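Quick one, T. Sequence first:
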Amino acid sequence: MISKEQFNTELELIIANAIREDVGDGDHSSLSCIPESVSGKAKLLVKDEGTIAGIEFAKEVFQYVDANLEVETLINDGDTVKYGDIAFYVSGSSQSILKAERLVLNAMQRMSAIATKTAFFVDLLKGTGTKILDTRKTTPGIRALEKWAVKIGGGENHRFALYDMIMLKDNHIDFAGGITQAIEKTKAYLKATNRDLKIIVEARDLNEIKEILKTDGVYRILIDNFNYEDTKTAVKLIGDKCLTESSGGINEKTIRDYALCGVDYISSGALTHSVYNLDLSLKAVN
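Structure tokens:
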């Protein structure tokens, strides 16, 4: 994953771009009927059940919009919530609260949905020693938020993007002329460019597992679209030579069985691409 500094930069870009997109040259609905001097208070109301996420991000949004806004937190990221819970109160300029409202809600609803699904998968894996990973199947422009939500839900982050890890998948292997060629070319590239990046290699069958194991320097083998028996065989072949990861159409009905095959990780794009927003609302407090 990327550094904390890089991650914070991504968050700053998300906030700045989202406010630019939503506010433009002004929130004229608020400007037209609420005096600049008016102060108010609002509450973040939960209207659903799940794992809350995005509270710390909401604080960053409020701070960006108006440094004088004050947030009183009642619930923390990662907590289980139910209908009627209040996550926080925000007080200060009414215009500022309304300017930040939509970004806060859009982000928190999406992040909470992802955290809820991740927590569900984590619970399914309890006792197996296998960890759940996200993927790059994220919403363009808000990847940092979605990967943050996975962490809040108890999952682990895969690579952040194309630049922080080497992942040799089927197309890379085929274009490079084969697994061995792809790995050797990659190692030569890393040496020539003085880069220290971990290498993951995808295997489509047991023969490819065996070929990968002939070459040193592979951090993790991606056991892609294998059935249970072949996954068990692959894990036994790999042993402690490198880490293992299962992927490919794994869902809530099959995830535990794949974990019981002995893999270190299971990656699932569904954590971020197949979720339904948690119902949240920001309501004025009279």
